[in-house]
Design goal:
The complex is a heterotrimer. By secondary structure, chain A is mainly alpha-helical. Chain A has 21 helices and no strands. Chain A folds into two domains: 74 residues, no CATH class; 476 residues, Cytochrome C Oxidase, Chain A. Chain A is globular and about 65 Å long. Chain B is an alpha+beta fold. In chain B, 15% of the residues lie in helices and 32% in strands. In chain B, the strands form three sheets. In chain B, strands 2, 3, 4, 5, 7, 8, 9 and 12 form an eight-stranded mixed β-sheet that branches. A four-stranded mixed β-sheet of chain B has the order 1-6-14-13, with no helix packed on it. The radius of gyration of chain B is 22 Å and the shape is elongated. The chains are: A mainly alpha, B alpha+beta, C alpha+beta. Chains in contact: A-B, A-C, B-C. Chains A and C meet through α7, α13, α14, α15 and α16 of A and α1, α2, α3, β7 and β9 of C.
Chain lengths: 634, 225, 285
């Protein structure tokens, strides 16, 4: 494959006083217009609040219409302030088309609307990192409360809000946790394209997510919400105004996910360079493809479901209220129709990352490439056929349960393909235990435990004991945190030398890994026992005999939190203070991104590359032990 | 390098300071409880502890600036009426409760709770008369501690009553009310939640939202110490 | 797992070594799972359903153990034996797949999965729902006489109604031993879930819907009831540790006394019905 050799020089921004530079379509304007938009929406909403048909709203001292319109107005103002309306308006006025915004402008472009996919990738990395940290702090407060068996530190309704914000923040943010930063940055490069198919929409997905995160955090000003991240009706309808923050949060997350997936699909399908056939696509790009299909198809269901929730809460419809003709089952089914593909949206990119990194650190080609691809696509397809396993004991028609038991068991077959490819790539390998590789190995262990615990949940008789208990919590934390988050860190440690051209401190990185891995297992393994012993989810009152186990878990959780602080310290220390430059290809990878200059030029390549193989050209066809030639490619 | 590092440090320091302030705000919000009010000692002849409560239809600006329209329990503490629902009582003793009920009837969703349960003698007095149940349609609130088996329905003040209390704190000597008294025994130490079982959260679905789901209005803790 | 043919004598037969290690691990692990960990897994053996769940949990764990050990032993083996020497820059063999291994893996995993699914279905329907809430029209129903008991979930306590004993409602659940009980679970407001741990029963309570679960207690014991679906502020406090399974004469005595004690309440209760939606059905006031 050919690579570029030079980059065009970046033009320097002309020097203007700071206050002049602050005027324009940027983050500051966005925040100001967002606040203005919020008040405009609020005012409009108040005109509905006093009328006769909404009398009950004023009885309850609440105006959900005002808050919902306020949030929507705030988001619209925010996006206008960033400049998202400029291009559509300029086209409406007949001005020429342009794909580029602010791609040349220096560090300011990270704080606004920038159409360079690499900038969006870094924006995502930092933005999601901040909200991941926030969600983690919520978890620390939750575990502090669970040191006691009755509500002691945190009030019972604040506890439910913490649980809900933790879950929603993590689910909403980490669904784009790998696609946002790493797919945005590397997919165009890996397929030989100069940009994403829709660069402005790409930037939009990021800023929607940031607005959403802020809105979710604002729920505490409105009383919080008591439903947890699943937002079940009719409790949803009964909740105070803080519930509307949840509704808008997931509406924005849903839109962001849908657009992100769409962008990925169109880019991968239409913008591959010559020679980049489907059979040569890096496995990471395949995982992005499989994930994007789910995002595009599942996210709209969530948006529709929550729109009906909003209508129930404001204009007194009865979609989910049995007294008015609705059904509580409708919400559960609609939510989980989105919710189950959602968790595969979380898992699939993790599969892609570890299979992409493994060849680099084992010096072997990926074993079973076609099988891995079929595994990912199989998981993607099957994920739409299993959702009722969340409803096994809820009173659904009993005829359905054997079918969903079967489908849930069957989805473990394509998941098993990923493990087979992982293990095949390790066979007779030459493993280097760099930090990214450590995270990949930990992924395998964690996801294995998570996946096998899923078998217990997929079997209805055993699910009868385990549903709604801490066993489920352990299962999904093992698959999502043990799987996705570990692969998230693998990707960070792997690609930061490329994205920033800087090296992490090796000792801090290894300390972070070991502390995180051991503390993670120490925190979540006992949760299986807690569930088996009968502790339900989302409670701050539990049986006295479980205090010891809960104390162990809480202390391990604090250590886990501390390991994240070590990571943060490494980020600040290595990327801001020490700033030691990384070599061009520190992992000796044959993937194309490592053969571009750092920083990668705006247009990625001088000339569009022509591919003649997949990036897994490792290994020697010779017998083991014979002297090998130089390990790295060009 | 230096200028970049110092710029980033400046921004980073600002972000950290703002972050810490936000964190402290959130931690403060999460850990705020209504004040704990201790039951007073009953007169020596009676023995045990005494608790005096009232239930208001609208708790008023003074007691709740955030939600003046919400129904609420209010407790007598040191000669004042305070809005709190965390009451401290002694272990293994008798607690005598007097409730001045100022609100109008809403009716019980589950009429089973119209029977007095778990009190000493299985009865309560309403305006001096000893009863063991009320008409479920007349219930305005309940005082229930399910873990102790205590369920006490509180009848409401008729709609047409003169001198109804519009806004708390309400005054028993001048405003229309029902006086309910009962006693129950406490066991070992612990934190037991208590709640109202009448759907009195006006404007919320099934009447069980808002004040019913916020600590400090229609539910709280009995701390047995 | 068969390895590619090698020509070097010094290379150990990794496939054979690994297989032996895995088999030894299974020989140690599976008995530990069945006899040491297994009894801790289920909700006990106090009812037919709980005992069934305990057996199912042990069986599933025993089937999962060799799979788990396969991957874990392999990972440990690989990490120990397939390393890059400290200053090395060696490459591994450029093997991209093996049709035989892949086919075997697919066949074996499919067979295991199918077997587990069939096992689960047989155990579920053979036990008339195995203690789970099976909806208003369960697929399989136990034969013989059944004692109907209604579980009413409301924010935030469970109460229980006995339609064949005058529709009396009680705050605690008492059941007669060696009797098939038909639990009819419903809610008066939001979604709750009736979880009687030692009975091995979990059935969601939905408003306006009847969710049926069958249980046959076989031992005199106490049991704890907890709510297993988030229902608002007091969800965690919605529990009752005073459930009891008693002998048939003790049950008759208890229910007779309860009918007397709760007579004032029974007089004002609505007639027994599989579901209720009391006022207010929308907004309180």
């Amino acid at each position: 494959m050919s690579t570029t050799t030079e980059s065009a020089p970046t033009p320097q921004p002309t020097s203007r006083p700071l206050w002049r530079r602050l005027i324009g379509f940027n983050l500051l304007t966005a925040v100001l217009l967002g606040v203005a938009g919020y008040y405009i929406g609020w005012l409009i909403g108040h005109h509905f609040g006093g009328g006769h048909s909404y009398k009950y709203e004023s009885e309850a001292d609440e105006n959900d219409v005002a808050l919902l319109l306020g949030y929507l107005g705030g988001v619209v103002g925010f996006l206008i302030g960033l400049g998202f309306a400029n291009y559509p308006i300029s086209r409406l006025l007949g001005r020429p088309a342009s794909l580029r915004e602010k791609e040349e402008e220096g560090i300011g472009r990270y704080f606004g609307l920038c159409t360079d996919h690499k900038v969006v990738g870094i924006q995502y990395l930092v933005g999601i990192g901040v909200f991941f940290f926030v969600g983690g702090l919520n978890a620390m407060l939750i575990r502090t409360e669970l040191l006691h068996d009755t509500p002691t530190v945190v009030g019972p309704n604040q506890y439910l809000t913490l649980v809900g914000v933790h879950g929603s923040m993590m689910m909403g943010m980490m669904t784009s946790g790998i696609l946002g930063p790493f797919a945005n940055y590397f997919v165009p490069i890996m397929i030989g394209a100069r940009r994403m198919a829709f660069p402005r929409i790409e930037a939009l997905t990021f800023w929607l997510l940031m607005a959403a995160g802020f809105i979710l955090m604002s729920t505490i000003f409105f009383g919080g919400f008591p439903t947890g991240w699943t937002g079940y009706e009719p409790l949803n309808d009964q909740a105070v105004m803080g519930m509307d923050s949840y509704i808008i949060f997931f509406a924005l997350v849903g839109i962001s996910m849908c657009l992100l997936g769409l962008n990925m699909l169109v880019t991968i399908i239409t913008m591959r360079a010559p020679g980049m056939t489907w059979g040569r696509l890096p496995i990471f790009v395949w995982s992005v493809f499989a994930t994007a299909v789910l995002m595009v198809l599942a996210a709209p269901t969530l948006i529709g479901t929550l729109a009906m929730s909003a209508l129930d809460r404001t204009i007194n419809t009865s979609f989910y209220v049995p007294g008015g003709g609705g059904s509580s089952y409708l919400f559960q089914n609609l939510f989980w129709f989105f919710g189950h593909p959602e968790v595969y949206i979380l898992a699939l990119p993790g599969f892609g990352i570890v299979l992409e990194l493994l060849p680099v650190f084992t010096r072997k080609p990926l074993w079973g490439y076609r099988l891995a691809v079929s595994g990912m696509l199989g998981v993607s397809l099957m994920s739409f056929f299993v959702w009722q396993h969340h409803l096994f004991v809820s009173g659904i028609n009993a005829d359905l349960r054997p079918f969903y038991m079967l489908s849930t068991e069957i989805i473990s077959i394509p998941t098993g393909f990923i493990f087979m490819c992982f293990m095949g790539t390790l066979w007779k390998a030459r493993i280097t235990f760099a930090v990214p590789m450590l995270f990949c190995l930990a992924w395998a262990f964690n996801f294995l435990i998570g996946g096998i615990s899923g078998v217990a949940l997929s079997d209805v008789p055993t699910d009868t004991q385990l549903h709604g208990s801490f066993f489920v919590m352990a299962h999904f934390h093992y698959t999502i945190m043990g799987g996705l988050i570990f692969s998230f860190f693998a990707a960070i440690y792997y690609w930061v030398p490329k994205m920033f051209g800087l090296r992490f401190n090796e000792r801090l990185a290894k300390t972070h890994f070991w502390l995180m891995f051991l503390a993670f297992n120490s925190t979540f393994l006992p949760l299986f026992a807690l569930g088996i012993k009968g502790m339900p989810r989302r409670v701050s009152s539990y049986a006295e005999n479980l205090v010891g186990l809960n104390t162990w878990v809480s202390i391990s959780a604090f250590v886990l939190g501390f390991s994240m602080l070590i990571f943060l310290f490494n980020v600040v220390y290595s990327l801001i203070f020490v700033r030691k430059p990384a070599e061009a290809d520190p992992w000796h990878s044959k993937s194309i991104e490592w053969h571009l200059p750092t920083p990668v030029p705006v247009q990625n390549f001088d000339q569009i590359p022509v591919f003649d193989s997949d990036p897994y050209d490792y290994g020697t066809p010779l017998p083991i032990g014979a002297a090998a030639s130089s390990p790295a490619g060009a | 390098m230096g200028s970049f590092t110092s710029k980033v440090l400046g921004v980073g320091a600002a972000v950290i300071i703002v972050g810490v302030l936000i964190g402290l705000y959130v931690a403060d919000w999460a850990t705020s409880f209504p004040p704990t009010v201790a039951a007073t000692s009953a007169p020596a002849a009676v023995g045990g502890a005494s608790l005096t409560l009232q239930t208001d239809a609208a708790v008023g600006q003074k007691l709740s600036p955030a939600h003046p329209d919400w129904v609420s329990y209010v407790v007598r503490s040191k000669g004042q009426w305070i809005r709190s629902t965390i009451y401290q009582v002694p272990a293994y003793s008798v607690v005598h409760v007097t409730i001045y009920q100022f609100d109008s009837p809403t009716g019980l969703r589950n009429p089973f709770l119209s029977q007095v349960q778990g009190t000493i003698g299985g009865t309560m007095t309403v305006d001096g008369r000893t009863v063991n149940s009320i008409n479920p349609e007349e219930a305005s609130h309940t005082f229930a501690v399910p873990e102790m088996g205590v369920f006490v329905p509180l009848p409401g003040v008729p709609e047409e009553a003169k001198n109804a209390c519009e806004e708390g704190p309400c005054e028993p000597s001048t405003q229309a009310h029902r006086t309910i008294t009962f006693s129950f025994r406490t066991g070992k130490k612990g934190r037991y939640r208590w709640q109202c079982f009448v759907p009195c959260g006006a404007g919320y679905l099934f009447g069980n939202g808002g004040p019913m789901q916020t600590l400090g209005y229609m539910g709280g803790f009995i701390d047995v110490v | 797992m068969s390895a590619p043919k090698q020509t070097e004598m010094s290379e150990p037969n990794h496939a054979r070594r690994f297989t032996i290690l895995w088999l030894v691990a299974c020989l140690i692990g599976v008995p530990i799972v069945i006899w040491v960990i297994g009894p801790e897994l289920g909700p006990g053996t106090g009812t037919d359903q709980a005992a069934g769940q305990s057996t199912d949990a042990t069986v599933l764990s025993a089937v999962a153990t060799p799979v788990f050990l396969l991957v874990v032993v392999y990972l440990v083996y690989a990490v120990i034996f397939f390393r890059q020497p400290s200053d090395g820059a060696l490459e591994g063999p450029a093997v991209r797949g093996d049709a035989k291994i892949q086919t075997t893996w697919i066949a074996v995993t499919s067979a295991i999965v199918l077997a587990v699914a069939i096992f689960g279905t047989v155990r579920l329907e053979g036990a008339s729902g195995a203690g789970s809430g099976s909806g208003p029209n369960p697929l399989t129903v136990p034969s013989g006489p059944r004692l109907p008991v209604q579980v009413i979930a409301q924010q935030w306590a469970f109460t229980y109604r006995y339609p064949t004993y005058g529709g009396v409602e009680t705050p605690h659940l008492v059941l007669p031993v060696n009797t098939t009980i038909e639990l009819n679970v419903t809610s008066l407001d939001v979604i709750h879930s009736f979880w009687a741990y030692q009975l091995g029963v979990k059935a969601d309570a939905n408003p306006g819907v009847n969710n049926v679960a069958f249980v046959k207690p076989t031992r005199i014991m106490g049991f704890e009831v907890r709510c297993a679906e988030l229902c608002g502020i007091w969800h965690g406090a919605m529990f009752d540790p005073h459930g009891k399974v008693v002998s048939v004469p003790a049950f008759k005595a208890w229910i007779t006394a309860a009918r007397v004690a709760y007579a004032p309440a029974t007089a004002v209760l609505p007639p027994y019905s599989k579901t209720y939606l009391p006022e207010p059905t929308r907004r309180g006031g």
